[in-house]
């Protein structure tokens, strides 16, 4: 269920999801907040004029907006007028040319919305940005990249590309999957501002990738060989097995769908499966579960059970 918020922008870092331009500091803005299954809150900010009220309206009207009591009287009235205005009449279906002429979307956004998913992914890959997600996600990353520049790699771990906060304020490193250690490594780097990299608009102009390091683990190379020439269905099933071997917390009900999506998004430059890259993103989304205490030697089973029982008693006592 969505919740709503209204306030004056505390900085100029957030991007309006309606017009894809920055919201200046001190400007009246509104937000839609949704929560994922993992209890992560996603916030989408809008200029007041760019905010579209759902057709069914918002239950409670202005009372549903957190922060309304901090607004100036004129801004509170503007929000009320927006919420109480009758919904716009349905327009007849427009041609592509007519739809492209709308003034509600920036030319940059229209340009990327007109591209295919494959072309969007090629651009993101050329700029070393995250390539997974739905088309709307890919479009927003490309728009942000062209307007503000590509996000750089983390200066601390030098492994992952930095991520912008959902609120649009601040950046952090998501961590990375260490194939040699076979575990996900978390990185605590955060920053309010980072220096962006010039956006490449033509994938053919992207600098050539450096040659693969000879020190690359034999296990990773062997895994890639195992996936070579596998059809999509078999590759997905094989990667699901590998994910469970590494104790990743992938939901069994949607494992094949999650894995299949990442496999397609992480193909290498030659169009081959890159299982380690897919596992790295999978581990970021579904970190390894902590194994329970188990005895590796059958003779020690009783001892392991005793330790487990002690842990439970301590938990009850604390």
UniProtKB/TrEMBL annotation:
The GO cellular component terms are: nucleus
Gene3D superfamilies per the record? Answer: 3.90.640.80, Zinc finger, PARP-type
Q: Which residues form the PARP-type domain?
A: 4-87
Q: Select a single GO molecular function from the record's annotations and give it.
A: zinc ion binding
Keywords annotated in UniProt: Metal-binding, Nucleus, Zinc, Zinc-finger
What's the chief localization of this chain?
A: nucleus
Q: Where in the cell is it found?
A: Nucleus
UniProt-annotated stretches for the region Disordered: 81-107, 201-220
Quote the Pfam families the UniProt record gives.
Answer: zf-PARP, Zn_ribbon_PADR1
The name on file for this protein is: PARP-type domain-containing protein
Recall the taxonomic lineage recorded for the source organism: Eukaryota, Viridiplantae, Chlorophyta, Pyramimonadophyceae, Pyramimonadales
């Amino acid at each position: 269920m969505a919740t709503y918020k209204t306030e004056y922008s505390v900085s100029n870092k957030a991007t309006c999801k309606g017009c894809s331009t920055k919201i200046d500091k001190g400007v009246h803005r509104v937000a839609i907040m949704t929560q994922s299954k993992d209890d992560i809150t996603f916030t989408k900010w809008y200029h007041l004029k760019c905010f579209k009220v759902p057709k069914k309206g918002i239950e409670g009207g202005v009372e549903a907006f957190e922060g309304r009591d901090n607004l100036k009287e004129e801004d509170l009235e503007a929000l009320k007028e927006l919420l109480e205005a009758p919904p716009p009449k349905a327009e007849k279906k427009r041609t592509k040319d007519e739809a492209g002429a709308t003034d509600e979307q920036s030319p940059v956004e229209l340009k990327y919305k007109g591209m295919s998913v494959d072309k969007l992914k090629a651009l993101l890959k050329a700029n070393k940005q995250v390539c997974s997600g739905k088309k709307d996600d890919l479009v927003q990353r490309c728009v942000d990249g062209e307007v503000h520049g590509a996000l750089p790699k983390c200066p601390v771990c030098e492994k992952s590309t930095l991520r912008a906060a959902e609120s649009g304020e601040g950046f952090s490193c998501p961590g990375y999957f260490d194939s040699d250690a076979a575990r996900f490594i978390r990185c605590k780097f955060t920053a309010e501002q980072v220096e962006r990299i010039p956006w490449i608009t033509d994938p053919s102009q992207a600098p050539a990738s450096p040659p693969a390091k000879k020190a690359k683990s034999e296990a990773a190379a062997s895994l890639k060989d195992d996936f070579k020439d596998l059809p999509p269905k078999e590759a997905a099933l094989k990667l699901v097995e590998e994910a469970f071997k590494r104790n990743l917390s992938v939901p069994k009900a949607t494992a094949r769908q999650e894995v299949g999506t990442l496999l397609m998004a992480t193909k290498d430059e030659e169009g081959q499966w890159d299982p380690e890259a897919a596992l790295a993103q999978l581990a970021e989304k579904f970190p390894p579960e902590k194994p329970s205490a188990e005895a590796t030697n059958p003779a020690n089973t009783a001892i392991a059970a005793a330790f487990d029982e002690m842990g439970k008693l301590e938990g009850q006592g604390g």
